[in-house]
Amino acid sequence: FAVLKAVKFVAASITADERTKDAKLDLTATCDTEENAAAVHGLLQALSGALAGAGRGAELLQQLTITLAGKNVTISLTIPRAEMEAWVANN
Question: Which residues, in sequence order, are bridge partners of residue 25?
Answer without folding.
Answer: 14, 77
